[in-house]
Amino acid sequence: MCASVKYGSRGPALIPRMKTKYRIYYITLFSVVLLGLIATGIYYITLFSVVLLGLIATGMFQFWPHSIESSAEWSLDRRSVHDAPLVRIPMSSPIPERGDLSCRMHTCFDVYRCGYNPKNKIKVYIYPLQRFVDEVGVPISSTGLSREYNDLLSAISDSDFYTDDVSRACLFIPSIDVLNQNSLRIRETAQALAMLPRWDKGMNHLLFNMLPGGPPDYNTALDVPRDRALLAGGGFSTWTYRQGYDVSIPVYSPLSVEVDLPERQPGPRRYFILSSQTAIHREYRVELERLKEENGEALLLLDKCSNLSQGLASVRKRCYKGQVYDYPQILQESSFCVVLRGARLGQATLSDVLQAGCVPVIMADSYILPFSEVLDWKRASVVIPEEKLPEMYTILKSIPHRQVEEMQRQARWFWEAYFSSMKAIGMTTLQIINDRIYPYAALTYEEWNNPPVVKWTSVNSPLFLPLIPPRSPGFTAVVLTYDRIESLFRVITEISKVPSLAKLLVVWNNQNKSPPEESLWPKVAVPLKVLRTKENKLSNRFFPFDEIETEAVLAIDDDIIMLTSDELQFGYEVWREFPDRLVGYPGRLHLWDHEMGKWKYESEWTNEVSMVLTGAAFYHKYFNYLYTYKMPGDIKNWVDAHMNCEDIAMNFLVANITGKAPIKVTPRKKFKCPECTAIDGLSLDQTHMVERSECINKFASVFATMPLKVVEHRADPVLYKDDFPEKLKSFPNIGSL
Amino acid sequence: MQARKKYVLLGLCTCCWLLLYYWGGLQERLLGLLTHRRGEVVRPWPNWLDRDLLPGYADQAELQNAGGPGDSPRQRRQSWAGIYKDSRCRMDTCFDFARCQGQSSFRVYIYPPEKGERVSESYRKILTSVVESRYFTSDPREACLFVLGIDTLDRDQLSTQFVPNMDERIRGYPLWNDGRNHVIFNLYSGTWPNYTEDLGFNVGQAILAKASLNTEHFRPGFDISIPLFSKEHPQKGGERGWLVRNTVPPRRKYLLMFKGKRYLTGIGSDTRNALHHIHNGKDIVSLTTCRHGKDWEKHKDARCDHDNQEYERFDYQELLHNSTFCLVPRGRRLGSFRFLESLQAACIPVLLSNGWELPFSDVIQWNQAVIEGDERLLLQVPSTVRAVGTDRVLALRQRTQMLWEAYFSSVDKIVLTTLEIIKDRVNSHISRNKFMWNALPGGLLVLPEYSTHLAHYPFYYLNLGKPVQKPTRRHLNQFGVHAVIVCVLVWVSCQIIILWNSEKPPPHRSKWPPMPVPLIITDGRRKTSSRFLPNAAIETEAVLSLDEDTVLLTSEINFAFHVWQSFPERIVGYPPRSHFWDPVKKAWGYTSKWTNEYSIVLTGAAFYHRYYHHLFSHYLPSSLRALVDRTSNCEDILMNFLVSSVTHLPPIKVAQRKQYKEMPILQGTKMAPWANPEHFTQRQECVNTFASWFGYMPLVHSQFRLDPVLFKDHVSVLRKRYKDLERV
């Protein structure tokens, strides 16, 4: 049985290998049986089956997974905590100094140990477990290794942070459990720490402590002298917390393992404010009761149940005037839950409250909230100075409903991500330290604070700064062509008249034919360059060529000859005001087909637009990078294989990353059916539309959402069609057919 | 024979079995060895056999009890005030919250200047900023915060601006009260050779707003680190950042640059003396000169001549423009001018200043805008910055600009940010969260009194992962409201608010045209600016502001509303106007002529977000609102200034059926005020007054208007959703 547990922990990688070996074994076994039967006849069946049984039994044993381990390892891993080596601390063993309050990462932390590494990950070493006893053999801690600390260390040792090579480690974690100061003998624990082989004045050592201090004064940080060791402590006050050095962690609540509180939809709940703590100072209880008198049913004040006997049952019950409530379930019935300080600042209640999705109302002056270095508690809790307890009700009432709902969601998310297990707490602590050592690779505010649902649906545009780039650098026109030279030359001649054109790039996508000689090309005032491609792929048009030196790119097909120079110049001007969007001429729409239950592509004269065709569109060169290197899934290959829909893919990409709709400019014209570039009988209009609809459905499934935004507007020049002398208009030649 | 067979068989079986055993075992062992060699991690922390039997770290009752109720809170607070003073000050113990009771009572008082007192240029700017801020009060009794009239910026004893006898003078102030509720601004502290944090007088319990703060001396949640700024730093407005476009690829000519002094001796010399090591003359330019102070030649070392020569080869401004990253090492003190310079230049700062509490670190997430290096790891800096990817460079660079423009570009912004941070602490439950501080448009333009909920603002709809809440659309018939005299109509999707701005009382309810939506009439007290005052009756995000003489079609309104939903942070309106720079008069001009571009849309008919009402009445100074009321004019221009200064973007003009205010003036009504030529000159003046308050011209030109997709297209009218727009 123990072996099977071990097997389970080896991970799934070995299972298939085991199966094949079983097969080999049984094949051999059965051939032996067959041989035996033939050779000796039924007479020996009884005898043989006895042998066979023995064989199977031993075989089973021998093939049971334990054999993978070499025997030394096996015995090492099957140890009990009590097998850990015993270390006797001499009386005169040195004691570390008390923690230095001025310690910071640049003074008390040896950063050379962490070094530069491309992954930007610190390496953490865990000391092997030892049992420390004093000279007379009394252990330094009444509990020894606790379940929680064991969970924490196992989680760290399973993580990417772990290293078993002590010389490569950047951070050291002692296996001495100091989670609860009450179970420790302070002096001996300190001596034990100093005896650690790499202690070196506590440099780069990390201690985890959740319950610091002891009666009567309850210090807010671990009292064990610890030199320069970092402290991940629950219940720091602003005077003991060394900002940027220590890490404030939550007080873990083991109740969350026992009770499963499923997530609740945010919204108004039965009670407005709930106080569930049992150890509230009399002065505060009086205040709370006064609030209750004033506001009645909205408040629920719970206390210990006096009639229940002490023990586990009483921990899970709360009472109010003889009525018994289940704790922590009752927390789910309230919008706000009071977390008042006790003798200690850190409270396990906070964890219960967050788990219940109840917004904590934290009243603990000077308390450093858990992980406050990275978590924005203003979005998940209400912090009120203790003095303002009488105003609590008014303050909470002034918070808008929608914000309360968001806070409830946020509270639950904080619990799930950072409070729910010792693993979560340990990993968050290490990540915070990691972020300090490699600040340039630190997680962002959004990564720390946004719940997954927001992360999926929100956008953080890479071009977020509202800039209107200057006109002067102009744009680069990228013409995709295959072999329509005549029409290509007309397009080039047309575009070259646009004042802001900076450069012309012709992407020659025909490998079988060379582009015409230089002398045959139309003479244009701007540089013109022909780029020959290796393969006839549609994606080539979106490649971030080094030759594109401007921000703005005009993608244009070799048959778009109907755009006037005014229209193109105007398009560029509009793009300058929307540099993060696609600005194009022919607009298209996606629709939900209720009958078929899927998306449909629409090119009719609609009142709405959600895409612009990239047969003629301005966009930022950055999107070329995204298209070429960051396109999700297999969309790029799909486009190249089908020789279609590259424009739809681009529209999806841009809309998905910016959350904004494209801009269609200027009135609709008779485009020479830009959809049916292969008009030479290859595809009919109808099949083309079907294919484009398929594209939309395919892309929507790859993006796992429909990022396109529908708008009802297009951009025209300010004086378009106004009763105004044409020659005074900047862009008179617009919309002519 | 039988027996022999039996033995043979048994022997055979045993052989088979043994063979299997060894062969199998061998294979297993081989396999084990192989897997081991493949780097299988030996499980480091054992899976203890008895781990389920391990005790909990604390029992449940102990956890819930949390050490019991503890001391009496009242006593504890009293004893804290005695213990946690001076260097251990926190808001809880060293700040008198009682002085700041109530919502609008965050008031700042400045000590009157004393006779013959010389105040430095920078400090004068700081004082001006406070005086012009909306928090200033001249009555010390209602003040929550006090600012000294004595110049405390330069506390270097060797400086000419050093003010002696500070202790005595301060003690003479009756309001000093050991510095409680005081803010002391300081840029330079300590002196050669150590440059300590010592200010040369006892700060007591005053909040320090200080440049170059060291984390060890910084009292978290109490002191405020401010940036070091030069005396040329503008009072208002300030230069915009240098980033005008996001070039791709984002790398500039140089990867990393530094050009500055190196100290031959004294504090800070270690870091600067090492900088030449990373210089490679190609993409990393790190230049130092020994030439500084009077007696540099005394300490001159072997490198000096070579370095000085190399130093002259490059121009600092040119490097600033053409470098992706800029080294910002510590000087004698931790902060340097270089920090703001590179921030403005969109040259991503690489900090080498261990222990520096970054400016406004309480609220700004610096790791999204700068690279925090470590003085000890100078040689790693090149590889670190080389490893920063394209996307990250783009993001960091834009972030530098965002922060520069939001908090640093003028003394006004630096001082206001300081005050706002303190105010957020005082009213901690009505304060900005970190997101508001770090997202566009920046914390100064987000007033938490309006709401602490992100979705109530027009700026964050994309970051919140939800679309803007759509007010239900109602198709209203044409408004029949021309009969109302001097009133403003605000249409709020399903709610109409009439602001009655006339001497006459509004007509009785029964006389109003029947309407399918609630109608609320409020008294405007005959002030022009009251049109933009926050009105509790406005429940929706979108506000359509209308003049009484505006006639709009339902479809025009619907279309504009639809457009606004895509641009909730901008003004979306119909009649455009424009501003221009008049080089002859050297002043801004205003024109209502038809032009090819516009920068203002009149709010006689425009959609905008409700939040701008709040900004209009709380962010703008009362002097500007008074101007609007006095002249009964320009409120729309002011609104456009405000919105453009927030968004840095132009307003949006949408299609309109016919030209604004061209309908015949109804018989018997007064001539509209806009027909008055004086009215027009007033507006010219307004533009200039507003521009001087903002410190720059926030208006931005646009060249397009938004029309319905099929507007005036050659297609059947029946297909068009907004067909009315095309009717004449």
TrEMBL record, chain A:
Positions of transmembrane segments: 24-57
GO terms for biological process, alphabetical: heparan sulfate proteoglycan biosynthetic process
Classification via InterPro entries: Exostosin, Exostosin_GT47, GT64_dom, Nucleotide-diphossugar_trans
Domain named Exostosin GT47: residues: 119-399
Pfam families: Exostosin_GT47, Glyco_transf_64
UniProt membrane topology term: Single-pass type II membrane protein
GO cellular component, one term: endoplasmic reticulum membrane
Cell location: Endoplasmic reticulum membrane; Golgi apparatus, cis-Golgi network membrane
Subunit-structure text: Part of the heparan sulfate polymerase, a dimeric complex composed of EXT1 and EXT2. Could also form homooligomeric complexes. Interacts with NDST1. Interacts with GALNT5.
Function, as annotated: Glycosyltransferase forming with EXT1 the heterodimeric heparan sulfate polymerase which catalyzes the elongation of the heparan sulfate glycan backbone. Glycan backbone extension consists in the alternating transfer of (1->4)-beta-D-GlcA and (1->4)-alpha-D-GlcNAc residues from their respective UDP-sugar donors.
Protein name as annotated: Exostosin-2
Organism, scientific name: Cyprinus carpio
UniProtKB/TrEMBL annotation, chain B:
Recorded metabolic or biological pathway in which this protein acts: Protein modification; protein glycosylation
Keywords: Disulfide bond, Endoplasmic reticulum, Glycoprotein, Glycosyltransferase, Membrane, Signal-anchor, Transferase, Transmembrane, Transmembrane helix
GO cellular component: endoplasmic reticulum membrane
Glycosyl transferase domain mapped to chain residues: 495-711
Cell compartments where the protein resides: Endoplasmic reticulum membrane
Chief location bin: endoplasmic reticulum
Membrane topology: Single-pass type II membrane protein
Residue stretches making up the Exostosin GT47 domain: 103-387
GO biological process, one term: heparan sulfate proteoglycan biosynthetic process
Pfam families associated with the record: Exostosin_GT47, Glyco_transf_64
Transmembrane segments: 7-24
GO molecular function: glycosyltransferase activity
Sequence similarity: Belongs to the glycosyltransferase 47 family.
Protein name in UniProt: Exostosin-1c
Species name: Cyprinus carpio
Gene of this entry: LOC109075419
